Amino acid sequence: MRRLGWHSRELLLFLMFLAIAGGASVFFFFLSSRDVRTAQSDYAWSLQVNAVLDRLADELAYAAQIDHPFDGESKECWYRRAVPGGTLEPSLTQQGLVVADGMLEFVTRNASGTVKSRSFRGFDNPLLKNVKKASFERRSSNLLVVSMSLLQDGTTDAVQVFERAISLRSR
Amino acid sequence: MSLKRSAERLATFPVLVMTGFTGLLFLVLAARVYMSDRDLALDRVREHQARLAAESGIHFALARVRNALVQPEPAILPGAIVPQAFESAVQIGRWRRIGGQTEAWFRVAEIRRVQLPDRLETPLIDESCQLQVTAEGRCGWHLAQTTAVVQLTDLVRTFGAMNSLNMYYYGTPLQPWIDRAGSLEAFMALNPGPFRTGALSPRGLIFDPRLLARVYQPAGEEPFLLASGTQPVGGSYGRFFAREGESPCRGPVYCQTPIVVDTHRFFGPVQTAGWLFRRGGAKPVIDDGRTVVALTSSRRVQLATDNLEGEMPPGSFVDQDASPNSSFVASWKPDFAALKAAAKRTGIYIDENGKGFYRGEAVDTDYHPGDHHLFSETYVDAATVGLEQDEVEGGYVVLSTAARYGERNNLDAVALRGARLVFSERSVYIRGEIGGDLLIVTPKHIFLTGSTNDEGPFSLFLVAGAGVALSTTDLENHVAEKKPSQSFISAAVKWKIRAVIYKPGAGWYGSWSSSPSGGKQVWPSGLLGGRVFTVTIEGACIEGNLKRWIDHAAPDGVRIEWKPAAADRLPVQPITANLLRMKTVRLN
Fold first, then answer.
1. Which is it for the CA torsion B71, B74, B80, B83, positive or negative?
2. Which of A33, A167, B304, B531 could form an S-S bond across to B319 if both were Cys, CB 3.0 to 4.6 Å?
3. 3-state secondary structure string, B221-265?
4. Which carries the bigger pLDDT value, residue B357 or residue B286?
């Protein structure tokens, strides 16, 4: 019953597990490398920007009224939400998306003045930072194109452009 | 030996199972990682589809509401619009699948009337005639809800002329270039830019204010290209276009096309779904003498004048408060099949032989059937080459009174027997009085041969699929036979039509009309002379092209005196439904 030497199948299994263990080690080493962490943070940043822009697009698409821009391009966008109730009339309060000092901020304007809101639908103000260039372009009465050029986190020259073409329902 | 083998087998088996499961685990993990992005994307697509499905529910309800509004039975009256009138048409609560391959569904959850009073400062919008429609859409586990406000507009109570003056105020800005290019297709091939950018539609509608200004500036260059060797038109269309004087409509006007005016006097508010362009230093006025034209409501005038900015051409008005949804009013189209069925059941039906039936039973009333073959005057259409001329051939009946039939009235109270709907398969000639509130419908032409319903107290609605035309033949024959005095003729060429007319302006017909030879113009002339007729419509006009009547009537001879109650007590009210506002939210 005593066994001598390696059986070929055992050798194969040993090599296979050794390869898996080696591959996994290399993989985990690769995961913890600086390049991957940079890529991960870029991806997370990109997801965050896209999530903000998606929420903005959703908000603008169903705004009761787009006050500005009426025509052409602007660095600001002013709109009115529908008042609660069934008539969907535009609210007296104006909401705005304003780019200032490289930041996109959500502000509210009423008769007494303009105030910076603390948050916008779950996102803290300012909604976006490191905004190099932003435009809200009213291409037609029912099409608003939002374009944002942002500096990537931790870089000084890598600019990424995000764009949303928004079909305005209550045009 | 066998013991050793079985022991080895027993020792190897768990290792193989473990190896197999490890491999399987890696495969599943790889597949899962590979598919996770796809699943996430599909989930977002489903979320979007749920929203779109809910919005589809609104558009579905709107189409069904519009269909319900043109049904003669039960008539939906503007003062008593109730959601129940639409519930059977929409089928509240029933889930409907969209398309054949998707898994999206929608249902209309609720229709209710918005309880708001009509605001006096917005005369062109009746806030008390709004419906709130709620629809739900689902796709996968996603659920969305859309709430929309649908505006109902009673056209007769709101406008004196609804799309009947489009061509009068807009003209045919492309026609000279299409004529020289040889066809619309050739013109589009020569000028693809404005069509590609959406500044210009093949129907000739201009959506860009700068192009509008270029086309209508009187001193402008040719705005469109022509093939080399083609004789130029000789300047912009504005050189040949003029719109001064007074509006033919004494009441509110609505145009789906842009309105281009010089120093022009309107007699009521003006609403357009496009642009209003006043040329140069011209000052269009409303009859109260103000130097601006009201778009939709007087409140908006102030905003429009306050907010002129950007690079708009001088003279154009930008109404920043108006939106396409609020300034557009959907066209009204009758349902001829439903009207025919209703006439067979509850009214008078005149078949293709000119034989009449009252509630399905034959009647012995003589509707004077006959056959004709006619040609209209020549005219220029928006996107055609050369002159157009209509040819009418087929049977007709003569309703109400006619001199050639001894002035006997076949639409008096006795003949009508309470019927409020007459449907004729043949073209209709009409002149004289009627014996009750009446809706006269034909899919062909209605020819007005003189004053109609001008003295009685009844409402009249003329609905002709091919349009309502003017026929001077009867009067010309009468003058030729009887040789009446000049004062009789002067009075006889002044026609008063007390009715709501669907598709007026379908041309002029008379003893002078003939087939054109070599593209020559054919205009009303004959025994009575040209441009002698005046036509006053007391009621309202819906659709059609009144320019054809205006061109050959006496100067300022076509006039619409708006009567908001002109369609009261009729089996069908011309009401349209528009989507005003919409909002969609996620429910989960």
1. negative
2. B304
3. CCCCCCCCCCCCCCCCHHHCCCCCEECCEECCEEECCCEEECCEE
4. B357
How much is the average pLDDT of B69-73? 87
- What do you get for the CA distance between the two ends of chain A, in Å? 87
The single-letter code of the amino acid at B186 is A
Q: Are strands B421-424 and B348-350 parallel, antiparallel or unpaired?
A: parallel
Would you state the structure tokens that stand for residue B386, as one six-digit string?
A: 């050369």
Q: What does the pLDDT average to over B536-555?
A: 96
Which residues of chain A have a Cβ shorter than 8 Å from any chain B Cβ? 1, 9, 13, 16, 20, 62, 64-65, 67, 70-72, 82, 86-89, 140-142, 169-171
CB contact under 8 Å between B584 and A169, yes or no, is yes
ipTM above 0.95, yes or no: no
Question: Left (φ > 0), alpha (ψ -120 to 50) or beta: where does B224 sit?
Answer: beta
The β-bridge partners of B297 are B295
Do the beta carbons of residue B435 and residue B415 sit within 8 Å? yes
Alpha carbon dihedral B83, B88, B92, B95, in 10-degree steps, equals -150
Tell me what pLDDT residue B310 has.
53
Alpha-carbon gap, residue A119 to A126, rounded angstroms: 8
**How many helices (H) does chain B have, and how many strands (E)?**
15, 29
Q: Which candidate, A157, A160, A102, places its Cα nearest to that of A131?
A: A102
Query: Where do we find the tokens 């009261």?
Result: B568
DSSP B561-576: EE-TTTTTT-S---EE
CA distance B102 to B79: 41
Mutate to test the interface with A, among B323, B578, B585, B586 (most CBs of A within 10 A): B323
Q: Is the sign of the CA dihedral A98, A101, A103, A105 positive or negative? A: negative
- Segment A78-105, tens digit of pLDDT: 999 988 877 888 899 999 999 988 999 9
Number of Cβ within a 10 Å radius of residue A46:
15
